[in-house]
Design goal:
globular, PKD domain containing protein, signal, mainly beta, Quinoprotein_ADH-like_sf, about 400 residues, 4-stranded antiparallel β-sheet
């Protein structure tokens, strides 16, 4: 159990650069999600908001159980579950983003919140869980799977068909679609275009998903958008790394999580795809790319393969690149659902060297299950959301935190 540093010392607002790797000993004062899965985490001031598909949560000591419909909140400093924040979200939550004025944006696959129409995207008050008036994004035709807020804009991705196809920039106050942002993912590898993950810096938006074009330009499953000008445009950045197929019948599109480094200079993409022996395909891997490289033939700076197990989530903190899924190994390019030469055991969670991509000594372990679906790095450590109950060899049901030592 982690006891040397208390969570009461935490003052956290947004993720930023870590200068060291987090402890392998999870913090004690985090609550537990008693069923389902955690898909998303956001930090609003000193409040952690957790979203997914679940119905009950318990305090850290498991003495009190709270009914919660797919979203809840707790104090980062103490782990106390917020009693007043208990909105009823009528379906799975897949994405969260911190809002101004003690609010949070909630995206997912739901028709209503608190019995009021709020299809796929809503803005909620942390004070009482109510819908924030005036925010009417008019999302339709599908779900919201990923969100990022930058200043007065909220970027949303998913498989929705309105107000744009799969990708939209919305006014953070009204939810209205920005008419200057018209970039459309196209020619999907699945029946519908879908953005799985996105991350934004001051002037770049990185997106991945089941598309093969952005605004008609070839961008197989991954693209970079210049958002530093009044009218965003597709950047002169293209990679063919995700053009080859993995197991196409099972994973026609295989990119999953991505995260920008704290300074925005690079990003890391993680994938599923199945045990494919060719190292020319980035199936079941983590790969680093340089954000500002200008080329139509961008190649990864490094790649780390699991050898046949999916990765779903990634967090780049400066000191490490954390990856999570249901992997058994890293550094395993020649594995095929097996430990190949040089494979390093890393159950469910791992830390990689940002410069080389090689696995770091950090090895807390995590019950594998489906896998890690959410990371959130912040001033005091790393929050982890998944579908299992063992983290760092302790009981931490579906949500936990590794503090900075």
């Amino acid at each position: 159990m982690f006891t040397r540093v208390t969570l009461a010392a935490v003052i956290a607002m947004t993720p930023f650069t870590h200068t060291r790797v987090v402890s392998a000993d999870p913090a004690d004062a985090t609550p537990h999600v008693l069923d389902g899965i955690v898909n998303a985490i956001a930090l609003v001031g000193g409040t952690v908001v957790v979203g997914g598909s679940f119905s009950e949560v318990a305090d850290a000591g498991r003495t009190t159980t709270y009914p919660r419909a797919n979203v809840f909140a707790f104090e980062l400093a103490t782990g106390r579950v917020l009693p007043g924040f208990a909105p009823v979200v009528d379906g799975p939550v897949h994405a969260l983003a911190a809002g101004a004025g003690g609010t949070v944006y909630v995206g997912g696959d739901f028709p209503a919140v608190n019995r009021s129409r709020a299809r796929a995207l809503a803005r909620l008050s942390l004070a009482d869980g109510s819908l924030v008036r005036g925010f009417t994004p008019r999302v339709g035709g599908g779900m919201v799977s990923t969100l990022a807020r930058r200043g007065r804009h909220v970027y949303a991705g998913g498989d929705f068909t309105s107000p744009r196809t799969a990708l939209a920039r919305l006014d953070a106050v009204t939810g209205a679609a920005d008419p200057r942002f018209t970039i459309e993912p196209g020619l999907p590898r699945t029946p519908k275009a879908k953005v799985y993950a996105l991350a934004a810096s001051a002037d770049r938006l990185v997106v991945d998903g089941s598309f093969t074009t952005l605004d008609g330009q070839p961008r197989p499953q991954l693209g970079v958008i210049d958002i530093g000008t009044p009218t965003p445009s597709v950047a002169n950045w293209r990679t063919g790394a995700y053009e080859p197929e993995c197991m196409a019948d099972v994973f026609p599109s295989y990119v999953r999580g991505l995260d920008l480094s704290p300074d925005g200079s690079y990003f890391v993409v993680v994938t599923t795809g199945g045990p494919v022996s060719s190292r020319l395909r980035l199936c079941d891997s983590a790969a680093r790319f340089e954000t500002y490289k200008t080329s139509q033939r961008v190649t990864p700076t490094w790649v780390n393969y699991t050898g046949g197990d999916s990765l779903y989530s990634v967090a780049a903190t400066g000191a490490a690149v954390y990856v999570g899924g249901h992997q058994r190994w890293m550094d395993n390019p020649r594995g095929r659902d097996s430990a190949g030469p040089g494979a390093v055991p890393r159950e469910g969670i791992a830390a990689l060297n940002p410069r080389t991509g090689k696995v770091l000594p950090w090895n807390p372990g995590r019950e594998r299950g489906i896998g890690v679906k959410a990371f959130l790095a912040h001033q005091a450590g790393l929050l982890v959301g998944s579908d299992t109950t063992r983290l760092g060899r302790e009981y931490h049901a579906r949500i936990g935190m590794f503090p900075l030592p």
